[in-house]
Amino acid sequence: MATNSSNGDTQKATKQPPMPSPLRFSKFFQVIVADNFFTGSKDNLKKWIGHPRFELIRHDVTEKLLIEVDQIYHLACPASPIFYKYNPVKTIKTNVIGTLNMLGLAKRVGARILLTSTSEVYGDPLVHPQPESYWGNVNPIGVRSCYDEGKRVAETLMFDYHRQHGIEIRIARIFNTYGPRMNIDDGRVVSNFIAQAIRGEPLTVQVPGTQTRSFCYVSDMVDGLIRLMEGENTGPINIGNPGEFTMIELAENVKELINPAVEIKMVENTPDDPRQRKPDITKAKELLGWEPKVKLRDGLPLMEEDFRQRLGVAKNN
Ligand SMILES: NC(=O)c1ccc[n+]([C@@H]2O[C@H](COP(=O)([O-])OP(=O)(O)OC[C@H]3O[C@@H](n4cnc5c(N)ncnc54)[C@H](O)[C@@H]3O)[C@@H](O)[C@H]2O)c1
Ligand SMILES: O=c1ccn([C@@H]2O[C@H](COP(=O)(O)OP(=O)(O)O[C@H]3OC[C@@H](O)[C@H](O)[C@H]3O)[C@@H](O)[C@H]2O)c(=O)[nH]1
Question: How far is the CA of 280 from the centre of ligand 2 (A)?
Fold first, then answer.
């Protein structure tokens, strides 16, 4: 199996970074959110709309964006498999053209840019847990490739802009993250199980159910991303919670915590579903002083509360 040393000499920039934007030294933060609302919702931003230092733009990252900024958190991309597979050509354009546009913006204004890459760059991993040095086991022509190969190209573009143009880059490889305000119909496993348990519907475990994932609570993720952006390491750095669960274990936890009356039902899976996934977070601990604080059994009830409010179903006890 192939491994590499991702932060060796070959990754060094050959050029000085562009002059940082004067905004970097500004006293006040301003936040501009650009989103095409394909999977996102304005509801999640309502507390900020109208704030004088907040701006929301309906914008698709596959088009150029001319704004003045000093840091770019490049998150735009559908992330749930059902959404990224819905229009795979658009997903790959978002990853490739979208990342090129964000890097072009970073270059023009001298901004630092952080890419939210993914554990899916490891594909169906043959090394467990996955360190950043693992090159992955990815099907280049499968139904998930628009996303996993798209993110791999996005990482390549980040390093090429870094080496060739001196752009200050940061790459986070995010492992499954969940939390309040996720789209109820997002389709990912945690939101599916929580919505199903609240509605009293069977929890749909896709076969075989022994596949594993490691779930990180959103506040831990945000803390990790900010530390990466503010720190001195380009990454890639795994950010995720190493607690590893089979999908049957996840369903059993949701059942016990949210609705012991629901049934667990085995259903068909989709092609190329990774069989195991768990981050090696040694680098995040050493380089960012980061590790997750919220355990799955503490995070699930926080998400339940938000989902109950939005679904209008109170807890009976
Ligand atoms: N949540 C996870 O488990 C996870 C894991 C690995 C990587 N990531 C990455 O983190 C980022 C955010 O993921 P998320 O879970 O919040 O997903 P999400 O689907 O909830 O949010 C993605 C956002 O990007 C927007 N978007 C999609 N395509 C766009 C485009 N072409 N132009 C502008 N906006 C666009 C959507 O409308 C949405 O607001 C994504 O890049 C995703 O690949 C997430
Ligand atoms: O209802 C469901 C949904 C999903 N699953 C299973 O749960 C596991 C996790 O599936 P999810 O759809 O939540 O997401 P995946 O882990 O496949 O991909 C995820 O991880 C990496 C990120 O980059 C992606 O944004 C995210 O989609 C899979 O094994 C899937 O088969 C179920 O058992 N039941």
Answer: 19
CATH number, domain containing residue 46: 3.40.50.720
Q: 224-283 pLDDT, tens per residue?
A: 999 999 999 999 999 999 999 999 999 999 999 999 999 999 999 999 999 999 999 999
Assigned domain for 111 exists: yes
For a mutational test of ligand 1's pocket, the pick from 75, 149, 213, i.e. the residue with the most ligand atoms closer than 8 A to its C-beta, is 75
**Is 179 near ligand 1, meaning CB less than 6 Å away?**
no
Residue 169 located in a structural domain = yes
Ligand nearest to the CA of 241: 1
| Residue type present at position 126 | L
177 lines ligand 2 (CB under 6 A): no
Distance between CA atoms of 8 and 61, rounded to whole angstroms? 31
Judging by beta carbons within 10 Å of its beta carbon (0-12, 13-18, 19+), is residue 178 exposed, middle or buried? buried
The whole domain housing 105 covers 28-174
Q: Which residues are catalytic?
A: 147
- pLDDT, one tens digit per residue, over 283-302 is 999 999 999 999 999 999 99
**Whole-prediction pTM value?**
0.96
What's the structural domain count of the chain?
Answer: 1
Q: CA–CA separation, 231 vs 69, rounded Å?
A: 18
